[in-house]
Amino acid sequence: MTSTRHGRPPASEPAPEGPVRKAVIAFRWVFAAETREYFVLLGTTLFLVVFGLVMVLSSSSIQSLVDDGDVFSRASRQAVFAVLGLPLMLLAARAPITFWKKWAWHALGLGILLQLLVFTGLGASYGGNTNWLSIGGLSLQPSELVKLALVVWLAYILTRKGALLNEWRHVALPILPVAFGSIFLVLLGNDLGTAVILLALTLGALFYAGVRLRIVGALAIGTTLLGVIFAQGSSSRQQRIEAWLTGCTRAEDYELHCWQTIHGWEALANGGILGRGLGNSQYKWLWIPHAESDFIFAIVGEELGLVGALLVLVLFAVLAVTFVRIVRMNRDPFAKIATSAVMVWIVTQAFVNVAVVLGALPVLGVPLPFMSAGGSALISSMLAVGVVLSFARRRPDAAESSRALRRSTPGVPRT
Prior knowledge:
The chain has 16 helices and three strands. The protein has helices at residues 19-31, 36-68, 73-94, 97-102, 104-117, 142-161, 168-172, 175-188, 192-208, 213-232, 235-245, 259-271, 296-329, 333-358, 375-392, 399-408; strands at 123-126, 129-135, 138-140. The protein has a three-stranded antiparallel β-sheet, covered by helices on one side. The chain is globular and about 55 Å long.
């Protein structure tokens, strides 16, 4: 007998050749990895993205209905960006470390060029910030791309400097004019929140690269003083800070500068331990502006309660621990510095977003990574994770044996 019932081939016959086998090989190539950290980072990131899509749909439904006549409009746009970000993240995860070193200067140059374009006729303003490009009906936030470019560029420059980082002048050039110049361009657009994150990842990269603490501390103090001076230059920003310092106790601040904060508190309190249930938020009914972006954590707390809010915090803690493990297992200083910078970026941004909702910081307009609505922020964050995944795919002590195995296995793409 050469065949079995129902037309199935005998078990002894080889598996069929063709598109199915090629698809299996391609799937294995995309997700092939040797470390547990790779899958923990990938899984946690994907969970946060999917969780974020659900919460964006819930938190934006009323505002979408009012603005667009469709409860799914904003969530649909966010889903499109997530679908675009996933293959970009996986492609970045397959890139060799030499790729990031080769294109570091090019990436930063492109980011700075796009940031400069916001001050031309292509720039768009919202809420007093000029930090977007509007091209053909599509909006882009170049400062989000500057974050990723700075991560790669700082890792490249600090690796090249090596032992010279103990000297002030080697830290100052070219990092001060280039990195801090990029931050200054973002500040020119009045986007203090993004500038804070850029500053944090820059100082984090310097610290993890081994720059002397007194140099990092001097830079931190100097930039903090400049930030205070910058904050005083805007009456709106100054009033928000004053309202935050006074605890939103003045009646005149309620509708001006404390509206989001107070209703964010009320939404969290309204959720209790287990929440009101997914989709049952009361405060998304236009009581909290930007509920799907800057204040999405308040909606999570209201609908899913303390349990849901703690879940979000635990997921970011898992990301932080995984980043640290990836730093420790890598030997290349470029991978260590880049991973550390991404860690500071993601964790600091999550901390600032949650702190703003809790009222521990004044309103800064910083999105919650992977969860808040915003295409530029989502794609840049997913790409940053992709860069780290490329360092976590193989253990350093197994790299040579892995390359030899790939050379000896036909049909498996080489990296």
